[in-house]
Every structure is written in structure tokens, then in C-alpha cells.
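Problem statement: downstream parser choked on a complex file, so we are re-checking the raw output for the adenosine-5'-diphosphate run. The parser issue turned out to be on our end (a line-ending mismatch), but while we're here, posting the original submission so the record is complete.
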Amino acid sequence: MRIAILHNHDHALLEEDPGREAREDVLRVASAMQTALGKHPRHTVSLYGVEGDLLGLHEAISSDKPDVVVNLCESLAADSRGEMLVPAMLELLQVPYTGSSALSLALALHKNKAKEILKARGVPTPEFCVIQHVEELASIDLPFPLIVKPSREDASVGIDFDSVVSSRQGLGRAVARTLRTFRQPALVERFIEGREIYVPILGNAPRRPLPLSEIRFGAAFNGKPNVVSYRAKWDTLSAECIESPSETASLGKELTARCMAVAEAAFEALECRDYGRVDLRVDSSGQPWVIDINPNCDLHPQAGFARAAEAAGLSYADLALHLVDLAWERRHGNQAPRLGRPPAARRAAEPHRDLHAGRGVVRARSHRRRAHAQQP
Ligand SMILES: Nc1ncnc2c1ncn2[C@@H]1O[C@H](COP(=O)(O)OP(=O)(O)O)[C@@H](O)[C@H]1O
Ligand SMILES: [Mg+2]
């Protein structure tokens, strides 16, 4: 089978990019995925790095005609809102691809829309409002403490200790900062004190929750809000990162079942598929609240999803192959063989192509594999 791995390659595009580390990380995921899938004797794997040139990508995929696309794109031209365009384009080309549809990705990234759907379905999610302009601040009628986050970002972009506020003054500052830095509406939400639990979900029918994990907030969070800030997620040398490891959650049978049920209901509400992770906070009464749905979660071998799969008996290579199978089966049904047409009948793909913003043409990069990726 000819597999194309698509990933964003846009971390160096903006001088001031508040999500640069998160965007860069996807290179490592793509590289790990390529290695894992490349071990399979019947698969050939090519990487496509996309800066922002969607038309160039369209041209490359329609001429190379991979059997399956592994879609790791989380942004286009350093803008997370471009993420949804990639699956939309793959639908147009009728190429099977891993992961959720454009609709689900778009909803998950429009956090207020996702929360409206959850609310309508009775899935517990903290009360919230959306602020477009600082003039609307006075209209906020939610009890403190609150958290302010960009409404269209991911990977803890825009989250730090000052995002959690307990006064009108702090709220005003956090909202103004979010509007100014991210040029998008600010989501203001009730801050749920309590445990932070992640529920990874794999597959469709059946959909299978993998072992749950929990963030352990250590001494760096004494007297500070327990939040997985951008620094905690990406600045590996920071105290916030070192002291917020994720561990296997030990919740007891009943709470585990409650967390899984809430997470699955959230996954279902956005029609997510194949894989993803639902983030919960569990309050002191044992009520889980959905704070974030990640249909396009981090698939790095050391990140939570792959570790949970491993704990469930699925090696990284097995996981990668399983994701490819899910995409293949969606299009072709559950049938063997899964090899597609013989490779000789097709034009050979470049091992790695980088598609650059605004160029209008595809620039084939070197034949070196994993040209940009580093191992973790
Ligand atoms: N309502 C909330 N209550 C408590 N903590 C929250 C809440 N919303 C977000 N957080 C904290 O902020 C982190 C990032 O927020 P999240 O909504 O998951 O955004 P992202 O999509 O960037 O991951 C979470 O992991 C959690 O620690
Ligand atoms: Mg999150």
C-alpha cells in the first residue's frame, strides 16, 4: 500500500508565533509514523510537509494518488484554523485518510460551538461565554474563578497562570490579552478545580476507550492554578513541565466508567472518528466536565495517546497500522487484500515533498527521509 503522511511544516513561518513549539512537534510525529509504517514490508511511505499551499498539496496528492493518507496536519500557514481544509480537500480527491472529518476538526477548534453542542446534548461542560470585544466585558455573568482561553487554538496555546482569574480586573486583563494576541474571540469558562483526566479513544465500531491518564500537578503549582499551560506542555526544561507529568489514572471503577461515558458522549457529539482524546476535569463531587475534545491529538510515540495504546497492548507500529486500516476500511470496507493497485502502475511518489505557502507550485524536497524531523 502506498501511504502518504501529511503534516504541517509551518513552525518557522511567523516570527512571533505563540504556537511554534506545538507546530514543530508534528515533524517528529510524522517522522516516527513514517518509521513505524515503513517497517511493514508491503507499505511504501512518503512524507508531505505543508506550509500553506493547499492547491499545491491538492496537485501533489492527485498526481501521486496514495492509497491512504495519514493526516497529521494541525494548521496551515501557522494558522490552526486551516486544519479543517486538509480533510475537506482529501474528501474532494476521494482519498481515504486517517482521523476525523473537516466538520469534526472545525467544531473541535471552535470551542464555543463544540460546547454549544455538548450543552444541547446534556454532556457536562463548564458554563461559558464568548467575548469578541473588550466592550462586552461588563456583560459577563459567570461566577469566579474563571479561565480565559483563545476560542480557536489548541495545544494550550495562550494558556498560562494569568489565564485563571478571580476578579473583574484579572478577567479584563486576560480577555484583552487574548483578543490582542490571537485576534480571535476569547472563551471565558468556569474554572473547574480538581483532577485533570484524559480519555484516549480508539476506533469506531467498536469505539474503545484506552487506559485513562491523569496530570499530577507538583510543587511548581503550589499557590498557583493547576493548569496545563503552554509552558507545561512545551517547555520541557521548565518547572511547570517537569512537575506536571501524566500518569496512569487511578480512579476506581465507578469514576472511571463515568469519565469514559462522558468522554465517549463528547466524542460522539462531534462525530469524531478513528482516534482522539477527550480532556476532563473532575470536580470534588466526582462530576467529570469536558473541557476539550482533541480529534487530532498528538500521536508522538512518547505522548499520551500512544502510551495508552501501548498499555492496552498495542505497540506504536500496531497503532499506526491500525489507523491506516481504519481509513482504508472506511472507503473500501473490511476486505483483503489491502494493497491497492501494484505500485508499478503508478508514478512513484517523492519520498518527501514540502509544499510552501503562496508558491503555487509543488517544490519537491530532497530524497532524504525525515529531512526535518528530529528524534525526541
Ligand atoms: N474550565 C477549565 N477548568 C479547569 N482547567 C481548565 C479549564 N479549561 C482549561 N483548563 C486548563 O487549561 C489547559 C488547556 O485548556 P484546553 O481547553 O484543554 O485547551 P487546548 O485545546 O489548548 O488544549 C487544560 O489542560 C487545563 O489544565
Ligand atoms: Mg487540551
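For whoever reads this later: The domain at 2-99+314-364 is CATH 3.40.50 (Rossmann fold).
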